[in-house]
Write a structure and sequence with these properties.
single chain, 248 residues, mainly alpha, Arc Repressor Mutant, subunit A, Four Helix Bundle (Hemerythrin (Met), subunit A), 2 domains, 11 helices, 3 strands
């Protein structure tokens, strides 16, 4: 009995370490390249290295850290090209999953999704990106879990932590008001209420890849502004040269 109690306590400590470090990474408190030492983290959390090691193994499985030695780990980065690939994979997985979910979704499940959207809006008004994305991730995981396709859920689960970190740390740059992120889920709800699996698949994939259209638009605008500034500088130089030649 004592052994079982000890095991539950160890798991609880590991969960606490995992949740703390995960939140710090996702929120950007711990930046890419930050070194995490098991012994130091154990001292900070007031625990032994066992729960810390268990937590770090889970974070490594989720792609948030890279363990390069027995006692040290490093926070991974979020290369844009790699994130685009993960979003693309997620789009395909959810596109398949939501087709199955649309056929069998219940009123209570729809109500659960509506509550999650409400929670996103509340978090958006409070400018709490971490909590907003917690509800966002739960919304999308429900779409996969309710499909009753275990393979799709197994493909989706390893992606969510890296995707959540990217959303938390970048989306405020592309949405004028972060409550708009909650609103982008409404077409998904509408398609599910109608049990329209084709529309549900289309809108969820469009929703997932929306950020890349916004990023592309911003990059194009930056390039246009750079080109305009270059042209203005060239024109100024030409004008100055002409004036100099006239004075001669």
């Amino acid at each position: 009995m004592q052994k079982a109690t000890s095991s539950r306590k160890m798991k609880s400590l590991a969960d606490q370490v995992y949740e703390k470090v995960r939140k710090d990474i996702v929120s950007g408190v711990l930046i890419p390249g930050h070194r995490i030492v098991e012994m130091d983290l154990a001292d900070t959390m007031g625990t032994s290295q066992g729960p810390v090691r268990e937590a770090l193994h889970q974070l490594e499985r989720e792609g948030l850290i890279l363990r390069q030695a027995r006692s040290a780990s490093y926070v991974t980065g979020t290369p844009t090209d790699e994130m685009y690939e993960l979003f693309s994979i997620r789009s395909v997985v959810e596109g398949f999953a939501i087709r199955h979910t649309a056929r069998t979704i219940t009123q209570s499940q729809l109500a659960e999704l509506e509550i999650l959207v409400d929670q996103m809006q509340i978090a958006g008004h409070e400018d709490d990106m971490f909590q907003l994305t917690e509800s966002d991730i739960r919304f999308h995981r429900c779409l996969c879990a309710w499909s009753n396709r275990a393979g799709l859920l197994r493909a989706w689960d390893p992606l969510y932590s890296q995707i959540q970190r990217f959303v938390v740390q970048t989306h405020k740059n592309y949405f004028a008001n972060v409550t708009e992120i909650a609103d982008t889920h409404l077409p998904i709800l509408e398609a599910l209420r109608a049990r329209d699996e084709d529309e549900a698949s289309r809108v969820v994939q469009e929703h997932i890849m929306l950020i890349w259209s916004l990023i592309d638009n911003v990059q194009k605008n930056v390039q246009k502004n750079v080109q305009k500034n270059v042209q203005k500088n060239v024109q100024k130089q030409d004008s100055a040269q002409k004036q100099e030649n006239t004075q001669k």
